Amino acid sequence: MLAAASPAFAAGDIAEGKTLFTSRCSSCHSVGPMASSGFGPQLNAIAGRHAGSLKDFEYSNAMKQSGIVWDDKSLAAFIENPGKVVPGTKMRFWGISNPRKIADLLAYLHTFK
């Protein structure tokens, strides 16, 4: 687990982020010690990872070629509108427009490395 969330998302509520992850993300993604990629890539240590780089997940060419290194800003934008950030992504998700919920989700994701 990361010692602390980045300053931009330090105020996010980890418990709320966990609830949001469970309800909106966990059907495709996993986190934690036993996390593995399935329908979507596992999200441990997402911060600092190059998009499309996990060996155990088959990403879209768009994601592999995006050049993104995930940080809070790029993750927040992607969570808000995946298709706008990476046109051609395989991720089928309407997005989350509420900045508070995005901050909560990122705070939760920052607890996994």
UniProtKB/TrEMBL annotation:
Gene3D superfamilies per UniProt: Cytochrome c-like domain
Membrane-traversing stretches: none
Chaperone found in the keyword field: no
Keywords linked to the UniProt accession: Electron transport, Heme, Iron, Metal-binding, Transport
Domain (Cytochrome c) ranges: 12-113
Top-rank taxon, per record: Bacteria
Keyword Amino-acid biosynthesis: no
Protein name per the record: Cytochrome C
